[in-house]
Specification:
Shape: globular
CATH class: Mainly Beta
Number of strands: 25
Largest sheet: 13 strands, parallel
Number of domains: 1
Helix content: under 10%
Radius of gyration: 15 Å
Distance between the termini: 37 Å
Number of helices: 0
CATH topology: Pectate Lyase C-like
Length: 210
């Protein structure tokens, strides 16, 4: 979906399934990918299942100046990956060059992978790259047993070192966060935040893993 506006929509008892094996594909209750799109006032409940690629309770990826605001997902997000990397979030798998405002996720996230591939898993966002996040929250549990995975109660990772910085403010995460023995980084708010400024945020869930 590109150059669109979607407002005031309730997606109830969603049940999706994705068997995509390409890292360029993904899964979400509304769409797999949105570019330069505004999403406002959308709620999601149910289950969102994904494979490799970008998976989120609302959308797999929001990019190229998209704005997501006043959106809430209580959907459980579960991903079983078999090849390549994955980006998994309770609301959005990848937020790239875009803005998230007054939004949250509560359904919980589970990532299972039998391969060694860098992946990012978060209660709200899997990846936040050159993005702005304000007044956002994640309250569900986040768990991963994959290898080389960054896991965060709010955001899995901001892996960019040479691009523009991300800004995250007025946020919190309350769910427990756990990673397997081979998980790279695990954190209450962020797993691996390389180029991000945090202000006025907190996490209260337990954190276990490497």
């Amino acid at each position: 979906m590109s150059n669109a506006t979607v407002t005031d929509l309730d997606l109830v008892s969603i049940d999706t399934a994705s068997t995509n094996l390409s890292a360029l594909t993904g899964s979400g209750a509304l769409a797999s990918v949105v570019f330069n799109t505004t999403l406002d006032g959308i709620t999601v409940s149910g289950d969102v299942d994904g494979a490799t690629g970008s998976t989120g309770g609302l959308v797999g990826q929001a990019a190229q100046g998209s704005v997501v605001q006043n959106c809430l997902s209580s959907a459980f997000v579960g991903v079983s990956a078999n090849t390549n990397s994955s980006w998994v979030g309770g609301l959005i798998g990848q937020l790239n060059g875009s803005t998230l405002y007054r939004s949250g996720a509560s359904g919980g996230v589970l990532f299972v992978s039998g391969i060694a591939a860098a992946s990012y898993v978060g209660g709200l966002l899997g990846e936040c790259k050159e993005c702005t996040v304000t007044e956002a929250a994640a309250t569900g549990q986040v768990a991963s047993n994959g290898q080389f995975v960054r896991v965060g109660g709010l955001i899995g990772a901001d892996p960019v070192s040479n691009g523009g910085p991300s800004t995250v403010s007025d946020v919190f995460a309350t769910g427990d966060v756990s990673g397997g023995d081979t998980t790279y980084q695990v954190g209450g708010l962020g797993g691996f935040m390389r180029n991000t400024t945090f202000s006025r945020g907190y996490a209260t869930g337990s954190v276990t893993g490497y």
